[in-house]
Amino acid sequence: MTLLGLYHYWVFAVLLMIGFYAVIARLNLIKKLIGLFLFQSAVFLLYITMGKVDGGTAPIFQVGVENQIFSNPLPQVLILTAIVVGISTMALGLGIVVRIKEEYGSIEEHEIQEIDQQ
Amino acid sequence: MTGLSQHLPALQVVVPMLSAPVIMLLRARGLAWAAATAASLLAFAIAIVLTLGVLDGQDYNYYMGSWPAPYGIELGVDAFSALVLLVVTGASALALLACRRSLDADIEAERQPLFYAAWLLALAGLAGILVSADAFNIFVFMEISSLASYVLIAGGPDRRALPAVFKYLIMGTIGATFYLIGIGLIYLMTGTLNLADMELRIHEVADQKPILVAAGFITIGLALKAAVFPLHVWLPNAYTYAPNAVTVFLAACSTKVSLYLLLRFDFFVFQTNLVEHDVQFSYFLMPLAVLAILVASGVALFERNLKRMLAYSSVAQIGYILLGASLLSLAGLTAGVLHIFNHALAKGTLFLAVACLATRCAGLRLDNISGAAQRMPWTMGAFVVAGLSLIGIPGTAGFVSKWTLISAALDEGVIGGALVAVIVLGSLMALVYIWRVVEAAYFSEREIDATSLREAPPALLTVTWVAALANLYFGLVPSVPIRLSSAAAEILLRHVP
Q1: With CB atoms counted within 10 Å of each terminal CB, which end of chain B scores lower, N or C?
Q2: Contact by Cβ (8 Å): A45, A58
Q3: What is the set of domains in chain A, with CATH numbers?
Q4: Is this prediction's ipTM beyond 0.90?
Q5: Is B497's pLDDT higher than 50?
Q6: pLDDT at B16 over 60
Q7: How distant is the Cα of A105 from the closest Cα of chain B, in angstroms?
């Protein structure tokens, strides 16, 4: 029960490792970046999960409604910032890949290494 | 504290950060450089004022938007952050002052305003990590400085910088994301992001698994960013193929700031609360530090590219800093923190001298600089002074920190004796690789006729010598850095004076 009840954390861990594996095992630079973005997205899910309160809604105070339960808005705000950071990293990474393609004519890591060793 | 001095911690970040977009718009020739240098010098001046204040015993706490501490974002400057702030802003100011000609050669004119804007963003990010007392804020500043430094490293004409920077981007992002997971788990358990508040509240949940996992993620993530052996693989190529001015700036400070954060987190937040964290920290990092000193120095011995040799030497020096910290004693931490300052001084000067050589020589392999000393006596003179400081010859700054490190290690009994042997062996290897450069520059004949070889541009040479003389000055009069670093060690170990 507890194992299944914590399934969002399992999603986080599995997604994190899939992303990490792609970063390590793939030689194609774009695939590496996709893995990296998956890796970061998993962390976004961790933050959003921890802010969720059972039965909680968006933290907007309404006059006349009593006993409202709110989800914690702070992790969501934090992760909004982290998403922006992630997108900037992705954009810069893709920019570098474009430059590598222009200079080396390849986006495969081992081919670039071969060209450099010549 | 009244008026402006109260806002100095915030201004330390705001000045370079707000200068960046303005500089991007300055299209006239040389104007962007002048504005960036002025902003950087101003940041250096703020760091000096803050350091003097800290030495006077002032506490700088600043609440953004006047929100009180655990709820709002707190900025704070103490002895530890003041020392590293001096290093960061000083390195940026000196590198910009020195390297205008060198950067003109490396960066096309129309891209220069963007380049200088990225430079100031990197400076703002590094300064932000140092003044911030909020864990998530630190993450954002870390990513600002990292993204900006990727741009700086890739900005040069050497295409090999691109794969190097891609590797740095991947590893840097993994490090930062590990850090993010760590503070997420801590927030999950304690509900706070303020470091001082976290330190108080973590005590109640210190035996829970998420906190242990968080400590692991944060330590590894920051070790990756700090290029701790064996997580240093991104560093040598990134330093080697970056424009020379960027190498001066980043070699002196980017890994130091991550080390600062690593020490602050592990000692300030975790050490007092987690059972046996100190033993684990020491057992984990001391072997890595020893390996870093021996292996990286060994690689540097056989490296023929000057910049890459110095980059491997940096990995070894990070080992000395961690070795001091992993002794867990007041003397050891003092030595480690002091070495952050002294190594930045020595390595900054060495890379400035390399920038001097790069303006005149065809390449930076040892063959390219053979016989250079006859034509460039001043450049090589500065290189030798800084090299002696790196080795740790008495009379230079490097000696002071090596000496405090050795005396701290001797307090540790048998294992200390072995560590002293490692430190001495590392210094001997430094002697050998610096000597190889000296031998090439002074004692080998130049094969190609080098009438074009002459002394480096005066601005670059002057700054290089200012930095070299600083190595001698802080070797002979080391009281200020020693006072700051022992105060920093006391803060980290909570021996409140």
Answers
A1: C
A2: no
A3: 2-53+70-117 (1.10.287.3510)
A4: yes
A5: no
A6: yes
A7: 12
